[in-house]
Amino acid sequence: MISPSRRARPSKSGADSGHARAPISGGFVDVPTVHEREELRNWLLAEGLPPESASEEGVDLFVWREGDSIAGVAGLEALGPQGVLRAVAVRREWRRRGIAAALVEHIRETARQMGLSELYLLTTTAAEYFAGQGFERIARGDVAGPVLESSEFATLCPDAATVMVRLIEAGRHGDAATER
After folding, report:
1. Taking the domain 28-167, which CATH number applies?
2. What are the boundaries of each domain within the chain?
3. pLDDT tens digit sequence for 31-80
4. Which helix (H) or strand (E) holds 106?
5. Most CB within 10 Å of its CB: which of 50, 52, 120, 165?
6. How far are the Cα atoms of 7, 9, 16, 139, 172 from residue 101, in angstroms, in the given order?
7. pTM of the entire structure?
């Protein structure tokens, strides 16, 4: 897991999804405390997302902090060479400011550093958004390997959820990753 002192910041341009955004100042990616994980479970449940993402073993959870407040959350479950992007959510008052994009980018970079080759997700409401973040729709039947055995795919998300994947290639000589 990335140490809390490692901070990622979103693009101030807001160009990541085509929506106009106010720039974010002072926010950063962090790791939630044990107490905050219980609060996140309740929030995810209220947002219609699987609350297990905040407490399930094997899911690295990251939050976006604005001052003393948690403005957003996202999780990464690593399964062999694959990963599952879990529970991306931003509080209403912080939406459309690039926080989700910053969290998704942090998860992608973490996955690259872990040597993962593919990052999967399931969504019932945000396929268009994730397409703008470099994910491609695929058929559920095209998913192979340990991702199918994850609780996200096996039991938590409905069969009607859209399945998406983003391929990750390791960067060369310490350069940033290149995406296919």
Report:
1. 3.40.630.30
2. 28-167
3. 999 999 999 999 999 998 889 988 899 999 999 999 889 999 999 999 99
4. helix 99-113
5. 120
6. 14, 10, 7, 24, 24
7. 0.79
